[in-house]
Q: What sequence folds into this?
């Protein structure tokens, strides 16, 4: 068995700069003795969920999230202080606050997180700064989307301060 173990380790062993098991002789990486342990069950979990809930439930949840992403895009296009940065084809929506600096976008994102309204991320497309929203929870509703965009616009207006006199819709964080 000991020689067979070495053969298995040679067949399955994986080395990487971030893994330190091989530096410690007392550590045994059991993955070296069989196929990968962590990913084999992913398909099993998906299969069980599809069997339990049905494929139609998954399809409906995905369609709901895609519809909400398009709803976000529609609301952004209708908002005078927001603009889409790219067409929406999946659940990610990249947009920006018109005339906002990177600092203003960052301040708005931080405020949304701090108050617990939403966790949106920064975006950068073609050198322009913006915000990225992704619909990833099947329980998200249109009311949730409206709340987030309303709060985002309110916070952005709070941070709006003309730079160097009247420069239209230029924004700078007023801290």
A:
């Amino acid at each position: 068995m000991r020689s067979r173990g070495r053969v298995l380790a040679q067949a399955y062993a994986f080395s990487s700069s971030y893994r330190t098991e091989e530096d410690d002789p007392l550590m045994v990486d059991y993955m070296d003795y069989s196929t990968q342990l962590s990913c084999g069950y992913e398909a099993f979990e998906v299969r069980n969920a599809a069997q339990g809930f049905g494929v139609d439930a998954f399809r409906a949840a995905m369609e709901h999230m895609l519809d909400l992403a398009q709803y976000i895009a529609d609301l952004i296009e209708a908002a005078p202080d927001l603009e889409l940065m790219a067409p929406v084809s999946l659940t990610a929506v990249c947009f920006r606050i018109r005339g906002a600096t990177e600092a203003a976008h960052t301040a708005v994102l931080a405020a949304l997180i701090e108050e617990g309204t939403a966790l949106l991320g920064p975006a950068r497309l073609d050198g322009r700064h913006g915000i990225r929203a992704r619909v990833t929870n099947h329980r998200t509703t249109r009311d949730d989307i409206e709340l987030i965009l309303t709060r985002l616009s309110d916070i952005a207006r709070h941070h709006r301060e003309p730079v160097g006199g009247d420069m239209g819709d230029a924004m700078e964080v007023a801290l």
Q: What stands out?
A: Residues 17-21, 162-175 have pLDDT under 50 and may be disordered. Residues 55-158 form a domain with the Aspartate Aminotransferase, domain 1 fold (CATH 3.90.1150.10). The radius of gyration is 24 Å. Helices lie at 2-12, 42-53, 55-78, 102-114, 142-158.
